[in-house]
Protein 1
Amino acid sequence: MKTYVTKRILQMIPLFIGVALVTFLILSLVGDPFTQMMVNPRIRPADIARLKHQWGFDLPIYLRFFKWFWSMLTGNWGLSIFAGGRAVTELVGHAIGWTLKFSLAAFILAFVVSVPIGIYSAIRQYTLFDYVFTGFSFFGMSMPTFWFGFVLLMIFGLKLHWLPIGGIMTPGMESAPFFARVLDQAKYFILPVIVLSFFQMGSWMRYTRSSMLEVVHQDYLRTARAKGLPERTVIVKHALRNALIPIVTLLGLALPGLISGAMITETVFAIPGMGRLTLNAMTSNDFPLAMACLLIESYLLILGNLVADLLYAMVDPRIKYS
Amino acid sequence: MIGELTQQKEVSTRVEGYWYLVGKHLKKHKLAVFSMFLLAIIVLLCVFGPYFTRYTMNEMGNATTDVLQAPSSRHWFGTDELGRDVFTRVLLGGRISLLVGFSSVFSALLVGIVVGAYAGYYGGILDAVLMRFTDIMFSIPVLPLLVVLSSVIPGAGVWKIVLIIAIFGWMTDARIIRGLFLSLRESEFTEAARAIGVSNAGIIWRHLLPNALAPIIVSATLGVGGNIIYEAALSYLGFGVMPPTPSWGNILQNAQYAMTIAPWLVWTPGLAILITAIGFNFLGDGLRDAMDPRLYR
């Protein structure tokens, strides 16, 4: 087990570097942001040259990669080129808080709803309940995120006026008492969290259901029933434990969906999170900011997978790693 | 003995080959059959429908009386802010969205098959390099990079979108096929083929690939729906198929600005995406069940 953990962690290092390199190369295709400034007559060529040097854009690409990667590692993430020259760490730190809040809420909602339903569908396979929620999960998996966002906005925001149509809080509520502020923000959270968790709900229901089905048909459950245990004990004590093992990997599997889902959801609901920050950095060719955002998101993905793998190895004693 | 038995069977009943059995099992999966018909109708409507509608793609109606009209008998899905018939545009957009869906899956599969087959068949360093590269591509969030590639690659055509979706869509296929090839290359028929002097390329393409067809078909079916949604998401962010060429994604993107006064513009293209994606998901699920080799043992 210990060797497996060490091996798994060591394997991540080349992955970290590889991801950085590939993202760097793809982003470099865009070209450096300063050449575009040349057409602006109000910026002096000397200033452009100075900026280019400062950002390392006068170096050959491989040197620039090392320079950039080293400064990322040492925590010197630089300044954003276009967002008023604010520090990348500050921008990211602000945005990631919102995204984490939303993603975590969506993750918990999806988990709490889909796992019990998935399990119950498996126990009652081929009943009305199973059919309804199988249909629902396909519905969730096939739903275009942003369209679902539009539809909810149209119904609950524009038509019924129950919920705000985007943003993160009512203007003027920043200095309100704590509980009032939380309640106010909760209203803004409801729709984006539902949208973000909808896709996950669908796929997790399917996943939990098939994982539970695999256990339900095993011999040891028949034995448990044969020796006269009540159905409840059979399911809760015997089946559930084994069925829940693969569900641990959901942790890792959820991250890519949450990250790209967050990008769309944040755009639809005007939430100033990581997704929107990344998108804006990309479209305005803000190289330092875009790279930092992408790298953080990729590393979160890798770490999520690692955590899922390690958890899986920990909870399932049948698996022997060497 | 075994030869005799199979011979007898052939005489008494028809040969129940693999594909025959798959068809038989698929027929039992009612939702998959229903989805197949539904998808056929959608494809036929999109391909041939525009020849029969009263309006053309960019035909604008009267600037005062035909703009932003709610659905009616003249305009089934209403009209947009330029007075164009939305029904016609949704059908034409469907052509583009389906084209993007199918061809991006096809191109991604080509890459995935080549990478997976060579990695799995040759193993060793080639396998290690290709699979580490696959891992890297898997760890990068797709959507932001799609946006970058979309602004880097010149042009605004449909094929550009196909290309960039395919660039980030081949990894799952590559992993599935590599896994299959790893076990297939150890099988006896591979050894037999090698013994009679079939080249490596011959073994990969003629002997091993047909055995990996079932998971490829399943993954492709599920992929079409997913890629249609991807195209729509890209269009929503402003990096998809560019207007005036309509696609379900950019019709929707266009619709969001009129959301308050013309909600019908939002409903139809979105429902078109949703129904098509559900169809492909059900069909893929049915195919996966029907092609499960465990059923035929």
Note: The first helix of chain B runs from residue 2 to 12.
Protein 2
Amino acid sequence: MARGPWTVTGPWAPSQSAESIRRRYISSALVLAAFLLPLFVLTILVGEPDKYFHQAHGFVTQWVANKGGPDWIGSAILIAVPCMVVLTLIQVLPIFLVWWEMKIAAHIQVRLGPMRVGRFHGVLQTIADGIKLLLKEDLVPAGADRWVHFVAPIVAVAPALVCFAPIPLGHAGLAPVGLDVGLLFVLGVSGLSVIGLLMAGWGSNNKYSMLGGLRAAAQVVSYEIPRVISLLPVVMWAGSLQLGEIMMKQSGAWAGFLPKWFIFYPIVGQISFIIYLISSIAETNRTPFDIAEAESELTSGFHTEYSGMKWAMFFMAEYAYMFLACALGAVLFLGGGNPLHSSLGFIPSYVWFFGKTFFLAFLFIWIRWTYPRLRVDRLMEFCWKFLLPWSLANVAVAGFLFLLRMR
Amino acid sequence: MGAYFKKVYDVARGLVTGLGVTLRHLFLPSITVQYPHEKLSLSDRFRGALAFHPEICISCEMCVRACPSACISLESKRNEETKKKDLSWYKIDFGKCNYCRLCEEVCPTKPKSVHHTKEYELSFTNRNDFVMDWRPDVAQPAGSDFGQIWARFMAQGQKAGINIKSNGSSTPSDPVAF
Amino acid sequence: MLSGPSFETKMERVSETEMLLNMGPQHPSTHGVLRVVLKLDGEVVTGAAMDLGYLHRGVEKLAENRTYGQFTILTDRDDYLCAMLNNWSYALAVEKLLKVEIPQRAEYLRVIVGELNRIASHLLFIGTFGIDIGAFTPFLYAFGREREMILDLFEQLCGARITYNYVRIGGVSNDVPDGWVEKARKFVAHMRNCLKEYDDLLSYNPIFMDRTKGIGVLKKEMAISYGVTGPNLRASGVPMDLRKDAPYGIYSKFQFTAAVRQNGDCWDRYMVRRDEIAESCSILDQALEGLVAGEIMGKVPKANLRPPAGESYAQLEGARGVLGVYIVSDGGLSPYRLHLRAPSFINLAMLQDMLKGWKVADVVAILGSIDIVLGEVDR
């Protein structure tokens, strides 16, 4: 084209060069390393946190006894402080998990994801989102069942918080409550949340919400069954329902090098783990099993009509359950706080626990951003006709193998 | 029975292949850029906002007739001394503009008095701001290629507090400015 | 209890066990502003009614007070995902009236940009169909990476990324810039590799196949009786492709096969488009190889274009079916009447019958697999 003397030499910065990309990646990695390495050294130097807690607890009890105070204060501290720590953890963890999911999803999709808030790769993005959600107007649709609509998020999120009580966040002593029926408690209480989803679906006076709520109920109740049965071999092998004990059973090594984690138990361990992983993804309503939300079909499913903090509570419940599923998987299949090899025992047990949990969370996220969504009826078929027979067969094989070893 | 296990194996393999693709992409560099900080370079033929040069225009109204959405209007007076038309004003409504280059193609002057630039960040808070008005007696900003559009943008940027360099760049060289 | 306002008249009454579900015009997967009213029994669709016209701009009427040259830019906005082919179909119709000779180089350039735009349109289909099924990632690969490359090529060629105004009456508006042909060759090679990636990630993904195989079957007879054209028809086993059957331009020079699948389900409609990308790549290879030097514009008056009185109909194989333009000229500056045969609109008509008996999730899959563009449906 013939152009005037005004050939455009303007304010357009050149496109990013390969060199600038490389520089940015290297600088990101350096910042990350500069932040993480001192933290890592610090955790090694500090060691297990519970010994400090017990020292402090002993000191306070002594002090109270010296002052002539009632003796229940000591036991109250022993219960209240770990519960507070875990409650705080569960409310802070979604902030990190959401950011992590955003970043992994972005990089899987060759995008950058949040980059602004917090200078380094948008680390404070979720906090900004949280503030936005706090400030949002709370809308209740006309004709909604106001009480059901109001209570639903609470019903959904409360069991998620309670579930963490018996989970050992490291070695066996780091569980807030050492329940003897820990596994049963976790599985039982986590099933309660579906009532909240059903209430949200009914209370919103929205057809999409109702379809979503019904789908959620059917799905969560169905997938509970293969999930529980897939955990039976672990319980049979460990001979206990207490999560700490199951974890302790997995310390040590098979044949000197293979960590004695249940996932490495021949055949049974892997099948159990895969069934547990699949049904856990379904339990947490994530793609490929997110039919309850099903953005392209039901707009947002059961939380279509929620906004602000009520919506955030559903969100928190979802991520708390995802973290719960990962934590349970880490404890039951990956040895919880046990190190990969006994020579790595100097790293504190909670670092191992959280490392394994976040590895499983990465698996969850990776699967979510790879697969399409199943259809409702095929989802049910998959549960009842595939997962259930396989998990039952797995229990039978496990029983047979354990019987052989007992001989 | 064998067919069943074959099917299970095939499905599992298909699923794992998909995971492989996404894992590979996890480590590839991003295709997106951070827009206000980084901008992609545009081709020389890019059809951005129109610029106009009243000192070249011969008021022939070819562009007015060529425009499909009637977004160009002008008024001229006949100059009895030079037997030519003198431009009084020239207006382009960017709210209507289709960015189709038909006006630039029919423009008979050399160089073209109306032509596309690479400016694409046209957003205004007022509908009237979309109408750009050129007059021969209003001086063009010196050293600028974009006529008054660009001058206006610079003014807007200054109001918004963006650090504008003396060369007319609104691209902040250091991201801290945002 | 559950009743719809005006749609009870369109469908038989809603019984006690059924409910009406209003999908759209604001819904994530209606690809624009289509409104579908579904009658549901549980999750199973027992009736469907379409509501169109939310995007009506009166393009055909606007043509009557635009000159012939000016109307080209409105065809860009008709089916905005393959604007080059829209430009081309309109140009063909006017050239038929003018009986003008098109230079060879312009013909080659038209084929190149047409096939590139067909690939771009199908890439968008692959991406959005993935989203409809629930997979978000393929969208970013197909739409965000490969399609952007095509748009970059178009930007270098004609200065616009969506509304090109490139294929003009009598030829094309710009010649290729330096190095453009090499870039296009590189893109074609890149595209072939990417198809393998899409296959791994989406096409042969077991969940995806489970969601699409055997869903929304469009029988051959039904497709023909509804006047369905394009990839939707070829997926039902009818090998109709205007590039083969009634070659326009210089398509008779190229060696290629029309992509045909037999079953007519959603997966076949997807795979036909995937195969067409491969076919377009091979056409592009030949066209880029054979690109001759010469003029790019035929002898057409620049201003005051007055085709002789009469009528003409020209059609070509668009990305969604047969794109036809019918012009009645009275010898004036603008068409007396202009009609666009919009393939999306005609393909959409069969949806009412197709949706019955499928689930809500399948509705989204079927709607996505038909690949409508609401800009073209409502015009």
Note: Chain A has 14 helices and two strands.
